[in-house]
Amino acid sequence: MSAEETSRYVRLRVEILLEVEDEDQVTKAALRRLAADRELPQEERTQAEGAVTEDTAEALAYLVDPFDLVSEVPGVELQQASWSSERITYDPDSPDWDLDEDDEEGDDEEGGIG
């Protein structure tokens, strides 16, 4: 690809840290979304229901959809997305939680809250 072709593509990296205050609500929301998904084959539905019931992080991964994040942005089309979730320990005072630590590439554009 030429430089002109590749410049049309932008990798947007987002890291979100959530505090789960009510695991039951998260699980129920994921199960409701699964129940509403009429295109999901029963075997996949059963597996997904088990995963979101056993692990709140899986329920969140099911509820947070990258397409939802960019679907209303004019002039862009989602080409590919991947995401995951995991339980972690969090100490907001630790230098390990500096949000800019992965920003070593000298990105041209920075954004964020805080």
Could you give the topology of this structure?
Layout: H1 3-6, H2 23-36, H3 42-54, H4 56-63, H5 66-70
Helix pairs in contact: 2-3, 2-4, 3-4
Describe the global form. flat
Distance between the termini: 37 Å
The chain-level mean pLDDT equals 84
Query: How much β-strand is present in the residues?
Result: under 5%
Largest sheet: none
The low-confidence runs, each spanning 5 or more residues with pLDDT under 50, are: 106-114
Order of helices and strands: HHHHH
Helices and strands: which structural class? mainly alpha
User: Helix proportion of residues, in percent?
Assistant: 25-40%
How much is the radius of gyration in Å?
18 Å
> Counting H and I runs of at least 4 residues, what is the number of helices?
5
For the secondary structure, the number of strands is 0
What can you see in these coordinates?
The chain has 114 residues and is mainly alpha-helical. The protein has a domain at 24-73 and 84-89. 39% of the residues lie in helices and 0% in strands. The protein contains 5 helices and no strands. The radius of gyration is 18 Å and the shape is flat.
Quick overview of this protein structure:
With 114 residues, this protein is mostly helical.
Which features characterize this protein?
mainly alpha; 39% helix; disordered C terminus; flat; 5 helices; 0% strand; 114 residues
